[in-house]
Amino acid sequence: MKEHERPRILLISVGMYGQKYLAEATQKDVGGDVVGVVDVAPNLEEKFPVLREKQIPVYRSLQDFYRADHADLAVISSPIHLHVPMALECLKQGSNVLCEKPLCLTEEETNRLADAAKQAGRFLAVGWQLNFDPAVLALKRDILSGRFGAPKRFRCLHAMRRGEKYYNRSNWAGKITVEGREVLDSPFMNACAHNFQMMTFLLGSTMETALRMASVEGELFRGNPTVENYDIAFLRFLSETGVPLCYYTAHPLKTKNLGQEGRGEFEHAVLTWGKGQPFRVVTDTGEEIIYGKDGDTDMMQKLYDAVSWIRDGGKPLCTPEAGLPHLLAVRMAQTLPVQNIAPARVDWLNEDGDRFPCVRNLEETMKQCAENWALPGELGLSL
Ligand SMILES: NC(=O)c1ccc[n+]([C@@H]2O[C@H](COP(=O)([O-])OP(=O)(O)OC[C@H]3O[C@@H](n4cnc5c(N)ncnc54)[C@H](O)[C@@H]3O)[C@@H](O)[C@H]2O)c1
């Protein structure tokens, strides 16, 4: 790309999350320009007046866009089950791709997409934003250098309240399959997946890879009766290297945001992180190392990085490979039975024009389990 040229950006799907890319790329200078939007939703020009103001055309399909134009970068924020065909088409058309997480549903798809990117000579980055956070990358470099000794065990608690609006916004939310295709949507697969994926990324054996899990124990529940999959997960994985990773997540709770609250223990140091807190390591000798300022990464760093790789060279660390261990962990969790919470144990809360199912004592149970690296049954707790 010539020095004065600006990458041409195609935004694919501007739904709940994709509209954040639209806002960022039209309200700020991300280093490139949006040349088109692909989405099947009606009346997008009314919903997003900036499309008319900046004369950004809306296309109903990828084929329509590529017939008319070309893009250096395609940003995919479509429903999960559409990622694979869309990413393959964009790569085939010569665009680099930044695809929202999770990239796909299987290991075979992961490999197929990585091969397609290689063959096309384009990058395929996956939008796990924590993997783009300079604080996380600096921490990972120190872990890989052996500064803290071998990892012993990791855990994180992260839950976010989600109600009717969230589940009613699309046909795939909370579903196991949609239109005959797997989607496996759950807080562990999707909305609260970031901290688990980050733990696997931090423990990867190279900067580009993440650590795979070998086995899982867990208890899954369905608090919201309209959800097809589970919406509460207590999970304890054992990694291929023998490190336990505990993860606690849920949607049907009274508290808007619970956590994130993470802890990683090494031979010679303890790592902690949390909402509004930096990543903090304290070593056996009492040395304190702080990574980042407040623990809140700029979610859109990935867009700036992707544009700069096209302009200035460079390649993503958050590749299909980096997302694969999370995906395989999701598939392992999916084999566990799901227990329905008795309706009498669920209160419904009306707030902000939305309706939320709230499982009684869920917060306390999750905190107790996290504190003890345990599953509810092991502590004699039930929901
Ligand atoms: N990184 C994050 O923090 C984060 C947060 C939320 C969602 N996400 C990810 O973003 C992706 C989208 O999630 P969402 O919650 O915005 O979904 P959504 O259902 O709210 O929006 C999906 C959009 O895709 C459009 N769409 C549907 N079919 C289409 C088609 N055939 N062609 C083009 N557009 C089509 C819909 O009209 C809608 O605008 C998912 O992969 C999700 O996991 C990431």
- CATH 2nd-level architecture of the largest domain: 2-Layer Sandwich
**Low-confidence regions:** none
Beta-strand content bin: 25-35%
Top CATH class of the largest domain: Alpha Beta
Summarize the structure.
The protein has 383 residues and is an alpha/beta fold.
Structure overview:
The structure is a single chain. This protein is an alpha/beta fold. The protein folds into 2 domains: 8-126, NAD(P)-binding Rossmann-like Domain (Rossmann fold, 3-Layer(aba) Sandwich), CATH 3.40.50.720; 130-298 and 320-379, 2-Layer Sandwich (Dihydrodipicolinate Reductase, domain 2), CATH 3.30.360.10. It is built from 12 helices and 19 strands. It has helices at residues 18-27, 44-47, 50-53, 62-68, 83-92, 107-120, 134-145, 164-168, 194-202, 301-312, 320-333, 362-371; strands at 8-12, 33-38, 58-59, 73-76, 96-99, 124-126, 151-160, 177-178, 181-182, 213-222, 232-239, 244-250, 257-266, 269-274, 277-283, 288-291, 338-340, 346-351, 354-359. Strands 16-15-14-13-7-12-11-10-17 form a 9-stranded mixed β-sheet, with helices on both faces. The chain has a 6-stranded parallel β-sheet with strand order 3-2-1-4-5-6, with helices on both faces. Strand 11 (232-239) and strand 12 form a beta hairpin. It is globular. The N and C termini lie far apart (57 Å). The mean pLDDT is 96. Nicotinamide-adenine-dinucleotide is lined by residues 12-18, 38-41, 77-80, 82, 100-101, 127, 129, 169-170, 190.
